[in-house]
Amino acid sequence: MGAGLLIVLEGAEGAGKTTQLRRLEMHLREAGRDVVALREPGGTPLGTSIRELLLDTAAEIAPAAEALLFMASRAQIVAGAIRPALAAGRVVLLDRFFLSTYAYQIAGRGLPEDEVRSANALATGGLVPDLTLVLDVDPEEGLSRARSRGAPDRMERSGKEFHDRVADAFRTYLTGAWQAGHPECGPLVRVEAGGGADEAEVFRRMLEQLRRRWPETFPS
Q1: Does the reported pTM lie above 0.90?
Q2: Among 43, 115, 154, 171, which one has the highest count of C-beta atoms within 10 angstroms of its own C-beta?
């Protein structure tokens, strides 16, 4: 089998990543593609346990410990799920990857970039996404959507200033200058996910970007 594809969906809280990933997974399955959908943190028994801890509103977690917990989950999902799927020629759809760590732990929590990038290199073993779709939404709109889902988790409770920094970081990452200095992230593409656009329209915008690169894999 040839190498598969790793497609990552990123964005701030309430951007709609999880919804759009499910739509994309269903679209590919209906087209007969071999696809696996995963999320970070999670995707493995260890990752699922780490996810529960990270989102627990009763947990007190220092910023460095938070980052390292994400890295532990990432190392496990890369070794145990993503690399085997890619080696089998499958399309891997991933709800968050290390761009979120850069946004949430470097920009949001203020951790040193060089140290986080080094830890991430260890966790990923140099794995680079084929494409990351960054769903862009105003942070206020995104948090309003997140609140409508139910009680906020530990990350969602981090405060407006934190979430503003995260949203600003994702937009900075879309610039050519930033991407040139961070080749480990692979290509990043913005998808407008706010401003009144419904789920179907956001999905259409995503597919347009994917078909432009892989028309045979992502059919009309």
Answers
A1: yes
A2: 43
